[in-house]
Write a structure and sequence with these properties.
7-stranded mixed beta sheet, single chain, alpha/beta, 6-stranded parallel beta sheet, 10 helices, globular, 347 residues
């Protein structure tokens, strides 16, 4: 009986969100007595080494997205090692390097899941929104949704952002279905666009970047962008075959459509946006396709990871200690990062 009590009273450090508020008001609270999760049937427990800070986390923290669990541990860019294996789990062993994405679970039996479109599953479960995520020392997940990373030639701190901007952007890229020689516009040069620039150039495409950041313009240029400007100020010099846009800014949408050829695809990556207005249907929307990335799915991840063996997908990043996580979120929210993204060293 004493052993059972001791097992129950095991705690970890975690940043918890109980009440939503502006990031500057520091709505997340660091506690050292949050229950350490135990892996259930076919689950593994991950000792988190690095977790990324995502714009979606800010949307949840600030109330742009509703709370689905209270309190909630945010975070879905997770990289670490398996430290415990639950009953029936066979896919991983203790010590394996793994990751976890936004996709925590799906039903596996609906028409979407059966057709490789689990991101539309009506019973989808999202890491760090529906269940506790990566702003903690440990997380548990079903082994089928954990990403194997032993063979990926990147440092662990580079794997965390690959689990969200990497996989999300790559899903948008696959939805656009570009071909070698196509012209691709990337609006908003954050970590997602960084990965897409490198992959697109590797595949022989022309890449046109829109960003306001001087630092990001320099990084885009260093990585082979064919054109760098600001679409809110001036159009791209030619029409794009595809445009992938990330900023949650509605006024960008008609500008993007104007710069897209008929038959082209505009893929929106953002999970929330300010109001979108399209004033000129005939010249800016007619004949163009608007697609949105709705969650992520597992079947595109192996292909993305294959690119890590062909392209250097390490990324410039600001690394914060676990105690500095809230500071990192504030700095990232203000656009004041030195690098492309923010990563937190958990353990």
């Amino acid at each position: 009986m004493l052993l059972t009590i001791i097992d129950i009273l095991v705690y970890m450090k975690a940043w918890i969100l109980e009440k939503q508020g502006k990031v500057e008001s520091r709505p997340l609270r660091l506690v050292d007595n949050y229950p350490t999760p135990e892996p259930g049937y076919k689950q593994v427990r991950i000792r988190i080494e690095y977790t990324g800070i995502c714009r979606t986390d800010m949307h949840i923290a600030e109330g742009d997205l509703p709370l689905h669990k209270q309190p909630i541990v945010l975070g879905h860019q997770i990289a670490g090692k398996v430290d415990k294996v639950g009953e029936g789990a066979r896919r991983f062993k203790v010590g394996d390097r793994v990751g976890l994405t936004w996709l925590y679970g799906s039903c596996g039996s609906c028409k979407y899941c059966l057709n490789g479109l689990e991101n539309y599953c009506p019973n989808i479960v999202r890491t760090g929104w529906d269940v506790d995520g990566g702003y903690a020392e440990y997380v548990v997940a079903h082994e089928d949704y954990v990403v194997p990373l032993n063979d990926v030639p990147l440092k662990t701190e580079d794997l965390a952002p690959l689990m969200c901007p990497g996989v999300t952007g790559f899903l948008g890229f696959k939805m656009a279905n570009p071909m070698p020689g196509d012209k691709i516009g990337l609006i908003g040069f954050g970590p997602t666009a960084y990965y897409l620039l490198k992959i697109s150039k590797y595949l022989g495409m022309e890449v046109y970047v829109s960003t306001r950041s001087k630092k990001h313009k320099e990084i885009a240029s260093e990585n082979g962008a064919d054109y760098i400007g600001n679409i809110l100020v001036e159009d791209f010099p030619v029409k794009m075959d595809h445009i992938i846009s990330a900023p949650p800014v509605g006024e960008v949408i008609e500008k993007a459509l104007k710069n897209l050829r008929p038959g082209g695809n505009l893929v929106l990556l953002q999970i929330a946006s300010t109001p979108i207005t399209i004033k000129d249907y005939t010249f800016n929307l007619w004949g163009r396709n608007i697609l949105t990335v709705y969650n992520v799915r597992r079947n595109i991840i192996p292909e993305l990871l294959e690119y890590t063996h062909k392209i250097n997908l390490s990324i410039e990043k600001d690394i914060f200690s676990f105690d500095e996580l809230m500071d990192g979120m504030i700095i990232a929210g203000k656009g004041k990062l030195e690098g492309m993204t923010a990563v937190v060293k958990v353990t």
